[in-house]
Amino acid sequence: GDSVTQMEGPVTLSEEAFLTINCTYTATGYPSLFWYVQYPGEGLQLLLKATKADDKGSNKGFEATYRKETTSFHLEKGSVQVSDSAVYFCALGVQAAGNKLTFGGGTRVLVKP
Amino acid sequence: DADVTQTPRNRITKTGKRIMLECSQTKGHDRMYWYRQDPGLGLQLIYYSFDVKDINKGEISDGYSVSRQAQAKFSLSLESAIPNQTALYFCATSDGGRYNEQFFGPGTRLTVL
């Protein structure tokens, strides 16, 4: 079946540091890939997405590239801020499966001033 | 006003009690979902509905039931709550477009004593 594996947290960084969160997936079909972010006390929000190989999703300074050859979708940001402290979820959706989303376990990121 | 609302936001109950969690949306979406979130496990799909007459079990439906009262309303029930159902519960909606972006409510924190 479909699955998503992402690095366990927490990840603790200083402000302006570089952030990488690794995400790899297995899928029976040809998935779309997503990163969702959950700020404290809130629901999940879509951060970015990529729908085919070599696509790069980007938003709010975050980027992730759909790498079919390595089945990966790593999230990066060049200079994090305290406001980026949140839990980040990698997810995939396969159209043939009704596009239900399969989520990774989430990675908590804490950015210190 | 929020597009996806959940009530209650917090609930403490006792083992054996019947509990209903409610979700309403103003996005006009046909698809609605219920997930539970446990630390380190990401989100797991409990039930989903693609329209008012279509209800489907997700990965972890045992011990839960749902009702789709209208396009805008999707309720989750625990017929006889047990402690391992203590979790954060999220409702989500989607328009079923090609990439199935999902929009999440703020969550209900349920504690079963």
Describe this protein's structure.
The complex is a heterodimer of chains A (113) and B (113). Chain A is 0% helix and 50% strand. By secondary structure, chain A is mostly beta strands. Chain A is globular and about 45 Å long. The mean pLDDT of chain A is 92. Chain B contains no helices and 11 strands. Chain B has strands at residues 4-7, 10-13, 19-25, 31-37, 43-51, 54-57, 65-70, 73-78, 87-94, 103-104, 108-112. In chain B, the strands form 2 sheets. In chain B, strands 2, 4, 5, 6, 9, 10 and 11 form a 7-stranded mixed beta sheet that branches. Chain B has a 4-stranded antiparallel beta sheet with strand order 1-3-8-7, with no helix packed on it. In chain B, a hairpin with an 8-residue loop joins β9 (87-94) and β10. The radius of gyration of chain B is 13 Å and the shape is globular. Chain A binds chain B through residues 4, 8, 32, 34, 36, 41-46, 49, 51, 89, 93, 95, 98-101, 103-106, and chain B through 4, 33, 40-45, 48, 50, 58, 90, 92, 94, 96, 98-107.
List the helices and strands and how they pair.
The complex is a heterodimer of chains A (113) and B (113).
Chain A: E1 3-6, E2 11-14, E3 19-21, E4 23-26, E5 32-38, E6 44-50, E7 56-59, E8 62-65, E9 75-77, E10 86-93, E11 101-103, E12 107-112
Chain B: E1 4-7, E2 10-13, E3 19-25, E4 31-37, E5 43-51, E6 54-57, E7 65-70, E8 73-78, E9 87-94, E10 103-104, E11 108-112
Parallel strand pairs in B: 2-11
Antiparallel strand pairs in B: 1-3, 3-8, 4-5, 4-9, 5-6, 7-8, 9-10, 9-11
Specify the structural class of chain B: mainly beta
Shape of chain B: globular
Rg over C-alpha atoms of chain B, rounded to the nearest angstrom: 13 Å
Q: Multimeric state of these chains?
A: heterodimer
Helix-residue proportion of chain B: under 10%
Number of helices of chain B: 0
Mean pLDDT across all residues of chain B, rounded?
A: 92
Instruction: Name the pair of protein chains with the most residues at their interface, and give those residue counts.
Output: A-B, 24 and 25 residues
Spans where pLDDT lies below 50 across 5 or more residues of chain B: none
Portion in helices of chain A: under 10%
| Helix and strand pattern of chain B | EEEEEEEEEEE
What is the molecular shape of chain A?
Answer: globular
